[in-house]
Known about the structure:
The chain has 143 residues and is of the alpha+beta class. The chain has helices at 71-76, 87-109, 124-127, and strands at residues 4-16, 26-37, 42-53, 56-69, 78-79, 82-85, 132-135.
Amino acid sequence: MIGFRMLNIQVEQFAILGNDMPSGEIGFNTSLSFGVNPSIAGVRVTTRYELVSNEERLVILELSCSFEIFRENWDALIADGKLTLPKEFLAHLAMHSVGTARGVLFSKTEGTIFSQYILPPINIAERITEDITFDVPIDAVSE
Length: 143
């Protein structure tokens, strides 16, 4: 088990672009990306959601959650200057981020016609199909 804690949540972008009740089918476009900050043994998960109808973007939310990996776990994930994060762990962090985004989206749209569109369940395990490896400087490993 890889130990971690959430460090912070950052709303990178938020916009309500529509004013009227959508007339067509409603859908969500989603994207997910990962980054690392070796100086703090950190992993960042960035998620982006667009509420769309008839190819028109109605609401945009981009959110980043930063996590600190416990140093002994971080060090164990590094070999030959490369940090490898297992897909199951990435999915776990992403699930925390998606849940956070769901709450932020509701909070930001509360009192608008868009508050009724709650981010649906997303099967993260289907989206993250392999481990991800990052190059890290040698001094990113404690002695």
